[in-house]
Amino acid sequence: MEVAYRELTLGIAALFNDPVTGRGGLPALDRLLHLGQYALGVPGMALSELHDSGGAGRVIAATGSADWALGRPVQPEVVTAVLRAGPTTYRVELDAIDDAASDQMVSLGSRWILLHRIDLDGRTPAMLGAFMPDDRPADPDQLAVMALLGATVGRLYSERAGLPVQHAGDDLADRELFIAVTSHELRTPVTVIKGYADTLRDHWSQLDEKARREAARVIGQRSDELARLVDRLLAASTDTAVGTLSPGPFDLVEALRHAAANLPADLRRRFRLELPERLPLAYGDRATIPNVLTELATNADKYSAREQTVVLTAGDDRRTVFFQVLDRGIGIAPEQVHQVFERFWQADSGDGRRYGGAGLGLYLVRKTIERQNGWVSLRPRDGGGTVAEVRLPRGDVKRDARASGEA
């Protein structure tokens, strides 16, 4: 462990001298967790950021066997169960977390969690967890590694170096931004519709049949876009956000094939399906899959060159069924992978104005999926581009849990 600890120390020093990770934020956390995983010799690590109020949180960085949990909410009862007074580094049994996460980690070779509580100014902004592969207690070297990792994370938070990554909303600012976004985003389709309608009205006799049909097509297309935008704006302005859900077991592969077949024609042409023949049933609201896929596909399309293909894949593990939308577009900066799920985030960024959009699509996707006990994440794709991943509980596991009285 002496060699690993020395390498960890040098790695942390290099992290702060690197022009990318030296600014902190998610790039620094990701690199720090990789360094810690190697130094500890564990299969995986994760860091959960806690909200200032409500006691809930979210996994914002994960490596190794824990990477499936990236973006997963941490419920208040779990935070209460694992946080305790006393030494900042201590053992947490897997049964202290929710059954789904515990079962998943056991299947991936973990036996318990070595947890480090990040304390700062009388509060706990984050929790760092190492997933231990056997039942042996942590030795002094491993405790020293966790203390060093925890101190480094604490330093990033105390200096506000790109952290926290989740920002509490300001109601007044949200209202003002809502008005600004609404007026801007509604103006474009309304202007186009009015322009083509005026052309048809004023120049009908001068237009041939092809020109009339094209004008009607554009009016119809822009009207659909306008209706969809209004729906999203209304949904995002309410607490319920996505309406009433009807969860139950369903065939995710079949739902994805059907949703992909009904994408707008311009999206369908560049979409390639690489779906398995079958997967275990998912548990959620099948009716939400078309909207979720459309938002993710639209996002991939917006930031990719026209000749590039967008790929839809799916898979499963012990507790979840998931699908991914993969593109080779401009990619996403690691420090932005959580911001993109905030309301209106895109509206005040350079890319938002360059590429358009109200910054509501991914916000509604997260709200929709999390209301089904699932979660969604974005991350850079190896070789360039972005991976958008949606995970839902397995339907067969859900039914087994209810039958045994555990749900």
TrEMBL record:
Record's subcellular location: Cell membrane
Histidine kinase domain boundaries: 181-396
InterPro entries, alphabetized: HATPase_C_sf, HATPase_dom, His_kinase_dom, HisK_dim/P_dom, HisK_dim/P_sf, Sensor_HK_Regulatory, Sig_transdc_His_kin-like_C
Coiled-coil annotated residue ranges, if any: none
CDD domains per the UniProt record, alphabetical: HisKA
GO molecular function: phosphorelay sensor kinase activity
Gene3D superfamilies, per the entry: 1.10.287.130, Histidine kinase-like ATPase, C-terminal domain (3.30.565.10)
Sorted UniProt keywords: Kinase, Phosphoprotein, Transferase, Two-component regulatory system
Top-rank EC class of the record's enzyme: transferase
GO CC annotation terms, alphabetical: plasma membrane
Main localization category: membrane
Catalytic reactions on record: ATP + protein L-histidine = ADP + protein N-phospho-L-histidine
EC number(s) reported in the record: 2.7.13.3
PANTHER family: HISTIDINE KINASE 1, TWO-COMPONENT HISTIDINE KINASE
Name this polypeptide is given: histidine kinase
